Amino acid sequence: MFSFFKRFKKPAEGETPVDNAADEAGEQEAPEAFEEPLRHASTPVTPAQPVEPASEPVNEPAPLKHATTPVTPAQPVEEAPQAAPKPAEPQPAEPKPYWQGRTPSQWQREPLAEELDEVIPAPSPDAAAKKSWISRLKHGLSKTSSSLTGIFVGAKIDEDLYEELETALLVSDAGVDATEFLLEALREKVRAERLTDAMQVKNALRSLLVDLLAPLEKSLMLGRAQPLVMMITGVNGAGKTTSIGKLAKHLQRFDQSVLLAAGDTFRAAAREQLTVWGERNNVTVMSQESGDAAAVIFDAVGAARARKIDVMMADTAGRLPTQLHLMEELRKVRRVIAKAMPDAPHEVLLVIDANTGQNALAQVKAFDDALGLTGLIVTKLDGTAKGGILAAIARQRPIPVYFIGVGEKVEDLQPFSAEEFADALLG
């Protein structure tokens, strides 16, 4: 076998072949014509050999060169690769930027990601549960809703109406930028559509608010990596650990196995609180009594890969954006996760307390600049929250809001819907 390949390799180096008499006239095309079928094991070699002796004129290279193309086996050679293409052959040639560094198991899960599409929200709740959720959301935003809707009762469409709307939007934590944007768009809509009734203006404002919040409405995508590594961040008291526990329960509805990493090694009883949520949801929690948060999360990523866990969520210690040394520690955690899995973390979520008003927008900007946020979880909309902060976020830093929370129960954490939120504010 070695001598067979050696025999046809020499003509490529310019030497005289053993059994080819046509090369005495300096012919070099014939060895190249033989060399191509030898590279491809699937190409039949036997039909090509009779062509060489059939071309008797030695001094006419053109007929010999074209004699290899019309041979009958040339047609089946093109159809053979098409009949049995290998599925993984073209994929490594053009890797998707998001998927660089995937393992073979992750390549196999790519069609699964396309099938799942936007899997959250998925199992839609029944009518009673949905109605209960909407009522709790409206109750949480009742203060803002009453102040906004009361303006349109028996009102005239004049400058006083716009001034009252401006005050109500500013009080609802919408911020100056979002307030000016909504009022300017509302004035233009009233002029263009020639609205004359106050309730028509209210509906126009609702439509503009839905359009403003629509970019924030995005579903969390599952199945695009194994494990899907999620890094949860936020300030102290925002509800990170509780949100992780609720989110773990939510993911289990989609047959996702979950592993939690207790990366909050600073707050007292943070590890115990996460362990309680793990026991409640029958989810494994990896933790250490003391140690580096990055080391704990690094080990958790390795364990999730070894156990073929679907989703791994890492809790982190709460910190203020002004604590630069702690923010740098979060960057370190992100870098360590990338060492454990090249394309991780796949999601970097910030948990914000809706009661903090415009300070929540400052947190979003600071954490996004430091870590590159992929999504938000807005909590405590059932308290004294005014809700307008989402309009400010949509206007200045439109990062997707995956979930909003209106209570302490597991079912109180639900996917964000722009229309439902607008209805709760202006319903």
UniProtKB/TrEMBL annotation:
What's the chief localization of this chain?
Answer: membrane
From the UniProt entry, list the residue stretches annotated as the region Disordered. 1-105
Q: How does it sit in the membrane?
A: Peripheral membrane protein
Question: What EC number(s) has UniProt assigned to this enzyme?
Answer: 3.6.5.4
Q: Which keywords accompany this UniProt record?
A: Cell membrane, Cytoplasm, GTP-binding, Hydrolase, Membrane, Nucleotide-binding, Receptor
Q: Does the keyword Membrane apply?
A: yes
Q: Which reaction does it catalyse?
A: GTP + H2O = GDP + phosphate + H(+)
- Asked if the Swiss-Prot or TrEMBL record annotates the protein with the keyword Acetylation, the reply is no
Among the record's GO biological process terms, what is one? Answer: SRP-dependent cotranslational protein targeting to membrane
User: Where is this chain compositionally biased, Acidic residues type?
Assistant: 21-35
Residues noted as binding GTP in the record, renumbered to the chain: 234-241, 315-319, 379-382
What GO molecular function terms would the record report? GTP binding; GTPase activity; signal recognition particle binding
Q: How does it assemble?
A: Part of the signal recognition particle protein translocation system, which is composed of SRP and FtsY. SRP is a ribonucleoprotein composed of Ffh and a 4.5S RNA molecule.
**What PANTHER family does the record tag this protein with?**
SIGNAL RECOGNITION PARTICLE RECEPTOR SUBUNIT ALPHA
Question: Which family is it part of?
Answer: Belongs to the GTP-binding SRP family. FtsY subfamily.
Name of the protein described by the UniProt record: Signal recognition particle receptor FtsY
> What is the native source organism of this protein?
Caballeronia telluris
